[in-house]
Specification:
Six copies of one chain form a homohexamer. Helix content of chain A is about 30%, strand content about 30%. By secondary structure, the first copy, chain A, is an alpha+beta fold. In chain A, a hairpin with a 4-residue loop joins β4 and β5. In chain A, α2 packs across α3. Chains in contact: A-B, A-C, A-D, B-E, B-F, C-D, C-F, D-E, E-F.
């Protein structure tokens, strides 16, 4: 069993807040990340898949196919978008890096299964100092 | 004459658009950067100053003082903010990286003069692929 | 269960040596790292914690709280310090990256428990080529 | 048990292809990576070993010894070489990052055992976006 | 006058050698870079252009247009190619980073003029340790 | 005229202070960098040289020769050393990044002249946030 990782990037706006809290209360809980006028990040997304090497190709999975899947299912929906307002799979959810990792896992798990590999990890770096990982359980 | 550079970072939302254009026309001119719901970036700001080394300290300028100045005059105003809506020195301006570089130059030039150094360059990296520099002329 | 990682940095001096060996013998065993006049590094510290997402906040743990804990318990004690001479939790220990990882784990494990999360990994990068990880067992 | 990782780099040419396929068929399966005139990469190799800290040295393993082993057994054979034509342990194999990871594992596993540690992971980054990992099973 | 820089990447094989020298003599002069079976790199190309900000757009030049130009004129010709054998603008030239920088300058200078900007610098990083820059004179 | 840059790295201890000041006064002026027990850094040194491309080799200068010169004249003297106590060309000088840049310029300028190139810039990164450059005047 080998693991391969593909990095993709997206630039998005977001805000951490609870709709039924006041801006003041959101500020207390979420700090500057709750700014009502939004802020944003250059997100780095690392998708790791695992499985056996296909003896016919030397690949676990064709990375071009994996790249296209990630771009179609995720990047096209989040890049240059507002994560709170415009992303179908984030509707009604907090847009923390943790929650985003889980949501992206759920979007990709079955799709990657159909490519003959198993999704192993979704990692998202929000800044050079902060990142989250989800392994599906 | 020596040059020293201080890097600071800020995370902000922005949008490239002209207010009297339709969303459609803005999309034609500014592409996905015109998204009405904003997007955002992890900006890296590099401030380069020049001058002579002070023989009493071995410094061109105390980097802690330079850091504090950049944070007070720039970072506190742009970090976790919306560059189009909330930044006094960007009011009425495009928020392209070029324009932002010039605007930050204008905020810092005299302040750095008062520290006994000369502002040499404002460089802003918007993504790992795109950056702008301004040298004051 | 999700994982989040916070990176912090510190700049410190250190030396690899055994007090009851001669400088010559220390040089044989520890190479240039045994220089009696010290050398130093820009250390990068990656603290990974794991646990469940709190449905009230969308956080596993508030990263600002985690950052403040790491800075209070670790960074304030090691940054711009001599790891052999000045750090309480390194007294009498080798200052190799491996030993440092274990020592930082021991400083943080219970503190992170009190924040409602579980310490998963302490990773330290000493240079761009060398790093150590400790998972608590 | 602790883990330490050493990074080494090598620059090599390679090509993904099957000898009994036409260039056209290789292009269909392997894309631009099948270019008959080769292409190349700056590969980054991360070797992670695990084991107990030696109380006499504070080391899991002397990183200089690990570095020299990696350079002797791997880097000297692949750096500034053609992976398909010139590397003994890649003869008759696909030169995908996955296959390369497994092959390097097999070259190093016993050697590292003799140093008193256990090989844990071979990771290879082919580009800033693509990498593979192998854990020996 | 402002400066903007666009980074693009390409992976290519090459060899430093003089055709009328023996492999032995090429090895003496060019070292391991003369390997007759080629080696390769992940090249990073930084194109810096300068000019005035267009008050209608806030741009010196639309970065998407600049990106497309670089990809059409340069990247499509060098990515996953052999720099010595397959690149029209490198025919009969050494493929050192210096020579490559000058050659790319000559391919882009007039094209960028037609976009309303002036080419300022071509920078190429061959490895994390080596790079070349050309400013057109 | 082209420019080439070689990066080398060194890990060193240092301290910012004036010998005839008290530790307290040094702390006031130099902050935590004045710690009497030293601290240290992973320094990155970027040496840029300029000149014409030799039509016989395609090189401005052989990078291996430049690398060996930097290692012999600079790195061997500063790596795993104490910049204040052990470096001949820093004796009696402040060890700020600015002063270090000028001192390294003076060590290399004539040596590079003898290689047939001209030293253009000495750049030193002390941390990911701080760097200094010197251009010889």
């Amino acid at each position: 069993m080998v693991y391969i990782t593909r990095r993709e990037r997206f630039n998005a706006a977001h805000r951490l807040f609870k709709a039924d809290y006041s801006d003041k209360k959101n500020l207390e809980i979420f700090g500057k990340c709750s700014n009502p006028n939004w802020h944003g990040h250059n997100y780095e997304l690392f998708i790791t898949v695992k499985g056996d090497i296909n003896p016919e190709t030397g690949f676990l999975i064709n990375l071009t196919v994996l790249r296209d899947l990630i771009r179609k299912k995720i990047i096209s929906k989040v890049d240059h978008k507002n994560l709170n307002l415009e992303v179908d799979f984030m509707k009604g959810k907090y847009t923390s890096t943790e929650v985003l990792s889980v949501a992206i896992w759920n979007e990709l798990e079955k799709e990657i299964e159909q490519l003959g590999a198993t999704l192993h990890c979704v990692k998202i770096s929000e800044t050079e100092n902060n990142s989250a990982e989800y392994y599906g359980e």
